[in-house]
């Protein structure tokens, strides 16, 4: 018996919410909102909800049924959302306790809307209902009968029999919006609408309803119909043209808004006169996005009587037939009444439109189809939007009455930039220019004649410089009040902006944030006396920055946050204190330090009358990385700063010894390594001045020789003068001229000078290596001078091998086989000697002929 009672008890508790989660209760003005979404409820958690709840959100739960008592203590509910649950029907008493209900959403539930799932009387106690959103099915005629306050009915209309809309719709006096989107309709014909043409419906929506056919002249003689949305259908045939035929004859229909986005996906579309020179001309707002439009015929222009046109997303209107030049097109365009043209993402290739509209699961009508300023902006009367991503270089013209130009997200081809800004130059009425996100220019374009321009936005545009020419053109910006230059790379210009904004006398606000600017001239804003707001946040300015602000008497806000200030300079603090207005200053998120240099700054933060945003939260860091709120007495810090810093003194002493020592050692090391080059240059310099003097006296000659001979004059002179000289210089056919010490030296010069002088007159240097050579200091000197002259000029003539121990390291290196220096060994036999002399002659001749030694076979 006990087991049976437990089982019965479990079944009786089955519909109760089995979860420990609590709904979030929020109060906003007179509303009490209970947010119970995604909490795995199996029933309405009425026991935890306040009785004065006005909005109950139960989306994404597992509620299968609404019991009679579900809302018994919640009679104040005005809005009830049950989207994404498991409801299969609504019974007559499901909503009986909700007399104040105005908005009900039960979409995305497994309810097939019909007379059985929503029986007659299900809304009998909900007479105040204004918005009713249902899932897929038919229109429940008996259920909605008598809902005289119903303003919007949404159901994914999928008729199982005749597709005629029930006559009960005409009996609902307040019904304005009938949204039948995301159903399965296929054919739109006159039979469907015969019973509702005299209804109060103003908005009719069929978004993504799998419509393949639209009857011509279908929307004729609707008494109140003002808006039709047929977006995201796949009409067969010539698609766009077929859909336009449905509106050729409107009769008494007061249609003013027509949305035909994405009704054509396959066929390239040219906008034709026969599509627009019909009753469609009555329409004031037309949206034809994403229709594969590639161009237009010129004769369509007189038929464009709309005020608002939206035609971006995948449309690529490059062509016009017949082709007109700029001057021929101007008078035609000038008379078009369009004051707002949305061409956003005109040449884009992504899926943004389809994801946002065609695949939407909540296709409620809203104004996102058109720019938010479709009627008028507060400061302008007409506007135009050219946004998107394009490489088109086609000429674009701005009608003369346009006052608002929007180029955002416009990736302009370099040649297209000229066309855009040339037309802007012609438009003196332009008031607002938005060129944000354009990647249009590396430098600010030079634009003149814009006397009425008040707002310029070039943020996020890859701007790297404002040239002097562009600054000069600002003379014409006599009324510019707001200049937005944020999120660019102006730090790359290297400019300090001294005179950049000098001509903008009426400027009220300037935004230079997010530019990585590292320094600014102190007079950058000195001539902008009307400035009220300066935004320099998110840059790299530091304590060396001082802005002269005494002339900016209207200044109200300065933002220096997110920079690299360790403190503010004394001059900057004085400038801020001298302002007559109560200025707001934001210096948050800067790396302030608590050291001796910051004492005046810390005092100023605590004493100034300038309103510092969040001053009680500002922090500074000590050298040990500990942080301190800036609002603290500085006496202890001042006392610490007055004490002698022995550690610092010791560091300075050690640094004073260490740096000179390192410098001396380094200098000596470099001098030792380059000692032979230094001596060569020294003797060359002496030779230069001596030669200049001797040439003036006529005692010096500029004779040139083929080779300089380096040898030991005590032991090797006979060999040089009796063997080598006759063999190379002998008559009747001398093969080379030699510079020989003792014969060709200039009298009065030191030996070292003569060595350098002789080598500079010769192409080659021959080293006659003997045992005496390796012990001769003068030969060693000449050897190093020869290497300074160039190792490619050296030839070794080895007469007798010297003792290895007596050779210098340099000579040993040259005698190695892989040294790259040619080495000729003098033999004892006559035939070998003749061969060596021939090779020596050939090597000397190769230098004379401009060849390298490695080119000699």
Automatic annotation (TrEMBL):
This is TIR domain-containing protein. One of its GO terms (biological process) is signal transduction. GO terms for cellular component: plasma membrane. InterPro entries: Leu-rich_rpt, Leu-rich_rpt_typical-subtyp, LRR_5, LRR_dom_sf, TIR_dom, Toll_tir_struct_dom_sf. The keyword Repeat applies. GO terms for molecular function: signaling receptor activity. Pfam families: LRR_5, LRR_8. It comes from Capitella teleta. It comes from the Eukaryota. Residues 1-20 form the signal peptide. The chain crosses the membrane at residues 653-672. Belongs to the Toll-like receptor family. The keyword Methyltransferase does not apply.
